[in-house]
Amino acid sequence: MIRILLVDDERMVCAHLRAILSRADDLEVVGEAHDGAEAVEAVVRLAPDVVLMDIRMPGVDGLTATERACELPDPPKIIMLTTFDLDEYAVRALRAGAVGFLLKDTDPEDLADVVRVAAEGHAVISPALTRRLISAFAPGEPARRAARALVAELTERETEVLTCLAQGLSNSQTGARLFLSETTVKGYVSRLLGKLGCANRTQAALLAYDADLVTRT
């Protein structure tokens, strides 16, 4: 079971998230917190695997709580969940130690898959934010050549999976597009991360953009 802590100052949001996540047999919501200080205490007390953390909360905000939680021994994987589609929040959240940054309008059907990906240690970022952040840091030609050389070592199927990953598709969505099981997609992702020398999905997505597998918008 993947143990989840929900952190949001709006109790209705927590109730909504709990209802969505409780549909999955492998996910368990072990607690809620409604401000940053309470969140850190809950992390210590409940030892969740994944935390869905709101950013703007009274008192200690989500970014500060994330920094504090990530300093703990064996910290959880923290996904920032917010309504604010601002790059500055995404950058600060990731620098604070979060593994993901999602907007609250993320499709409910994708949320459980996102939690599973984060629990495995992979980064997850809202596709809209990924495109905007990537376009702000266009690589030079040497970086493009290096990225193309790495991608050239992938099999055709691995390249297809990488393209889907760079487009922000979840494992289940990738499987549906390529007619593969979700387990098979996970295997491909693990192998291509190793071949590319990437620590997580976000790094692989950046490399895919550098190699021009996906068009910058």
Quick take:
The protein is of the alpha/beta class and 217 residues long. Helices cover 54% and strands 13% of the residues.
Which residues sit in consecutive blocks of at least 5 with pLDDT less than 50? none
Q: What fraction of residues sit in β-strands?
A: 5-15%
Helix content: 40-55%
The total count of helices amounts to 11
How would you state the average pLDDT, rounded? 85
Q: SS-based structural class?
A: alpha/beta
Order of helices and strands: EHEHEHEHEHEHHHHHH
Largest sheet: 6 strands, parallel
Rg measurement, Å? 17 Å
Number of strands: 6
Please tell me what the overall shape is.
globular
Q: State the strand order across the main sheet.
A: 2-1-3-4-5-6
Separation of the first and last Cα atoms? 38 Å
What do these coordinates show?
With 217 residues, the chain is an alpha/beta fold. The protein contains eleven helices and six strands. The protein has helices at residues 11-21, 36-46, 62-70, 87-96, 108-119, 127-135, 141-152, 156-166, 171-178, 182-196, 201-210, and strands spanning 2-7, 27-33, 50-53, 77-82, 100-103, 124-125. A six-stranded parallel β-sheet has the order 2-1-3-4-5-6, with helices on both faces. Helix 1 links the parallel strand 1 (2-7) and strand 2 (27-33). The chain is globular and about 50 Å long. The protein starts with a strand and ends in a 7-residue tail after the last helix. The mean pLDDT is 85.
